[in-house]
Amino acid sequence: MDKLAVNLYSRYHRYIERKHNIYDTLTGVLNRDAYDRDLAALNPMDDLSCMIFDVDNFKAFNDGFGRQVGDEVLRKVGKGIGRVVKDRGKIYRYGGDEFVVLVKTQSEAMLKDIAEDILESFRSISLECVAQEITISIGIAINHQVALSKLFYSADMALYSAKAKGKNCIEFYEG
């Protein structure tokens, strides 16, 4: 191969390696490492909100129908959130069946609209091999110039509240 071909080949492999370092290979959304990097680069004074999504009864998909079905659920969740969020925020697979969206806004109305659109979009998502419905619970926290690590914690507390209220719903952190 000539030098140009070797250079292009090398660049391409570096690009693929970087892409795999920040994207979740199963869902195609940004991964936990990308979340940690992005959060570290943000300013606590930014207008920022955190939304945490958790698949309701995810263990039942894995245990009852197998890991392949569980993986398909995660792929559909990642794509479903992505279709709604688009360029309004960044989507991350935080771990397991948890997804995080960072949105540069403090508008409760906008956040509620995004979350409701996501819940609504899941009403039309189905799995061919399973009759079980896919639902998610959503916890939302708005940054009020606090440590950004507390923003995630606050959204997580709101998520627990949504789960406790019966799942398939949205809760804002009231703290």
Structural summary, described in words:
By secondary structure, the protein is α+β, with helices and mostly antiparallel strands. The protein has a single domain (25-172), classed as Reverse transcriptase/Diguanylate cyclase domain (Alpha-Beta Plaits). The chain contains 6 helices and 5 strands. The chain is globular and about 50 Å long.
Q: State the helical fraction.
A: 40-55%
What is the number of strand segments? Answer: 5
CATH architectural group: 2-Layer Sandwich
Euclidean distance between termini CA atoms? 62 Å
Order of helices and strands: HHEHHEEHEHE
Radius of gyration: 18 Å
Task: Supply the number of structural domains.
Answer: 1
Beta-strand content estimate: 15-25%
Structural shape: globular
Assign the structural class, choosing from mainly alpha, mainly beta, alpha/beta, alpha+beta, or little secondary structure: alpha+beta
Count up the helices: 6
Strand order of the largest sheet: 2-3-1-4-5
Q: Which residues sit in consecutive blocks of at least 5 with pLDDT less than 50?
A: none
CATH homologous superfamily grouping: Reverse transcriptase/Diguanylate cyclase domain
- CATH class type: Alpha Beta
How confident is the prediction overall: mean pLDDT?
87
